């Protein structure tokens, strides 16, 4: 059977269950697998543990799963843009496992590499290290962090071929490549789908061996901007020294 599916619902068929651990790529709303997130919402699965750098915003990204109360626990490094998350956490309705951002990335990378645990200085002496083993190396204290392996990884790529080889675009790469390696099943959504041999091998970041299913984003697919910030345009006279 080929790896390409007609839509997100079909790509996730048989892969979802209550209580599973899902790795979700993206940073803010950049590079998020929004179509796959919507399909998870529509499936109705619940009690999910979501591993993601952040929790989206109230009406987009993983915020959609929080609105429907399908998430039991978030493993994240930043959640400050989501008021729904804050309300549920403060009400005791949502668990949170905070990680320093670099530690989160390394935990996922370690999981994908088959490394069960590693030591880092980040978080030593803080609440992050509470209840975790520590060890001394060269006279310094380090805290042990466990690798993360998910049941499912959902990721977004700029371009992919039908064999699952993926290319990312600039900062939309973020957490997607490490998550693609660290789950029992990886499903990708791609903006542009090409044939094997069309991708420059030097540009492939995620080899197709890690990707079992993928979909192509339809025409008109919307990529939301979390915070639009633009520089105030300077008058032409100030920029060029010439009158206009």
Automatic annotation (TrEMBL):
GO terms for molecular function: CoA-transferase activity. It holds the Pfam family CoA_trans. Gene3D superfamilies: Glutaconate Coenzyme A-transferase. Keywords: Transferase. It comes from the Bacteria. SUPFAM superfamilies: NagB/RpiA/CoA transferase-like (SSF100950). InterPro entries: 3-oxoacid_CoA-transf_A, CoA_trans_fam_I, NagB/RpiA_transferase-like. This is CoA transferase subunit A.
